[in-house]
Protein 1
Amino acid sequence: MKILYVTTIGITMGFFKELIKQLIEEGHTVDIATNESDSKVPELYRELGCKIYQLSCCRSPFRKENLTAVREIKKLVEENHYDIVHCHTPIAAVCTRFACQKVRKSGTRVFYTAHGFHFYKGAPLVNWLVYYPVEWLCAHFTDVLITINKEDYARARKHMHAKRVEYVPGVGIDVEKFANVQVDRAAKRREIGVPEDATVLISVGELSKRKNHEIIIKALSQIENNNIHYLIVGEGSLLQYLQKCVSEQHLEQRVHFLGYRKDVAELYKSSDICCFPSIHEGLPVALMEAMASGLPVVCSKIRGSIDLINEGEGHLCDTLDTDGFAQAISCLVEDKELQLKMGKMSKESVDKYSIETIIKAMNKCMKK
């Protein structure tokens, strides 16, 4: 088969490395179309021989560049005669499905993986008014609509009129990598300035409003235990705001902004509790990686996260409930046996989200 992957920005392609590598090993041809102006496609794809095509699409739905992207994709798919065009990210997916209407009549199949609809239970009204009608319309031009969490799957089955709706739980993670990484905890803690005997909380993700780090900072200020430290791993536009929050709560010595890191697996193994307070997610990779590392979880009770963590397997809190997060963290800090028990449950339940399982499920979708 000849396959084209389409995404809005190149960094998204980092999620599909193992799947695309296997497709190429099986003899398929894989090309990639994306906007590389903000972030580059992982170099692996060039090494594998994938052709990379530049698109004009951008994250904002109201930019004229997206109309240009429709024309670019249309030209690309009509010239290259793909068997499957697989689009990801909302804007690229809309552009692609409009662009592919002609080639679908010639046998090209259009796949769309929705990594979390922008309309979801509890989403702002504007999200429903803007995104729902567009997705409803574009579903009519979609051969296979793939959803990655149960809420989206149920809604798509009921309301989205794609030819076929499938459920594939996420993009997959390297379970063995996170489960078996070796690290000198004491040395790693010294490196990042954390006492060896501290209880270490960790959150991994972009510093954005959606990731909701502020709630953990506020919760930490309510807990009367000065030997709890909080690692925030990631970059983003809210760095200065979050640093200000930390300063206002007088937590400068106990909250550590680590920025972008390549040693996330080692940081998880050097921590005690994963905090994942996001406001909305599709199916969170960072949470799965923490679970594979054997960490007990305190997370928000939202779509995607509740697919991964059942009540009793971790602590689930309302997204803006500072007291709830503080109580959940305190409960785990004070009960080491519960930490171990929930960490073990995390590790056991995440196996079904391994990259090997997801590749099999995705191949099955493509070959139906």
Note: The chain has a mean pLDDT of 93.
Protein 2
Amino acid sequence: MADTIFDFVAGKLEQATDFDKLEARGTVRLALKQSGLDAKSITRDQMTVVLQKVLPGELKTRGIDGPDAVCSGIVQALSGFADDSAAGAGHSPEAVFQRIGGN
């Protein structure tokens, strides 16, 4: 199993397309960059949004047929990924303001 959510998604993209490992990882990194997110700290929920909103456009630009279907399949697979790394936990704006407010 993949170490991180990024690795998991990049691996699934590689399997679902004719991308090699480098192309799949680079495409996911570009989608994350457009979203202002970091591959090291992305959460499953954040990645789901990237897969639904950003990555289909990146795949379409690269000539992948059925980019929405590819991303939907990855979203389904991602729902089973154990997000126990707690990447991003406590770093959301809500969590920061909650700590500041003492609640």
Note: The chain has one domain: 5-101.
Protein 3
Amino acid sequence: MTPNMTGSQQKSSLQQQIDENLKRVYDEALKERIPDHFLQLLAQLREKETGQ
């Protein structure tokens, strides 16, 4: 941020940086592999639901 920026411009720039970082972290989380343990738990829940 430059010293000549107004308060609203600084806030807008800061908000844009926050938005970009949150989006990057969210996108990275979506690409992560689901752990095998969670997949096993989901399979157990499905079996329990279909068994009722």
Note: Residues 9-51 form one domain.
Protein 4
Amino acid sequence: MTDNKCRYTLRVDPELLDKLGYIAEYEGRTKNRELEQLIKRRIREFEAEHGEIPEQ
């Protein structure tokens, strides 16, 4: 089984990762899904201020 998801290695301070894990668990998500939600939210905010980002 394959998927079309990109992989990205993130280097981050362990304390930040632990806190992200806490938030993710509180929200009923994995750390990966929590990061995905944060990225989507930031993109919406950016596009609301600056206009839609063109497809690459």
Note: Residues 31-50 form the longest helix (20 residues).
